[in-house]
Write a structure and sequence with these properties.
CATH superfamily: DhaL domain
CATH class: Mainly Alpha
CATH architecture: Alpha Horseshoe
Bound molecules: adenosine-5'-diphosphate, magnesium ion
Length: 211
Amino acid sequence: MTISTTLLASLITTIQDTINENSDEVAELDRAIGDGDHVVNLQRGLNALVKISDEFNELNWSAAFMKIGMTLMSTMGGASGSLFGTLFISMGKAAKGKELDLSTFSAIFLAGVESVKQRGKAELGEKTMLDTLIPVADSLVADAANHVTLNEALENAKRVAITGMESTKDMIATKGRASFLGERAIGHIDAGARTSQLMICAVMDFIITKR
Ligand SMILES: Nc1ncnc2c1ncn2[C@@H]1O[C@H](COP(=O)(O)OP(=O)(O)O)[C@@H](O)[C@H]1O
Ligand SMILES: [Mg+2]
């Protein structure tokens, strides 16, 4: 089973709704250990995507991911703008000539996450969005290799996204603004890990119910 880019317009609206519903909480998270602007940066990027979302119907996945990445890169700002931009631009490169199914998507997403690691010079355990993104990539790749059903793989991805996001609470940050706080960052979930988890869960739920 492959998934078409015609789903993108309503998927983007679903993601936007999820972020808007949780915006107060995310703003609070970034205020506690950052500068408070993460959710506004992300909302600016999502608004820009909604404005051009009619165009995605005409594109293949590679071009659509590229366009998403470039739009986020040029509209969001903040560390997260260049990192989410990088994620999608690299996914676009990895998606060249590919249809989207669990196996191709897992490899494409892993390539995107690898680029985020390089761009941010960060790894698992540094209290960033990568603590959500890396476990999700690993789970999808393992499930695709083991021929797990699509629904099961998506449920597993949601579960590890939540566990990964929650794991940032007890971490000291070694990258990003929160790294200036040392031990004082402990006890707060990372804002980028939370928005990444919210968006991943929204995508997975959308595919489970709408495909
Ligand atoms: N080097 C990095 N690698 C991965 N993610 C990072 C890095 N630096 C920051 N982040 C993520 O970006 C989020 C902050 O985004 P945002 O508030 O939009 O940017 P800024 O920190 O410039 O204000 C953090 O919560 C964290 O998840
Ligand atoms: Mg910020």
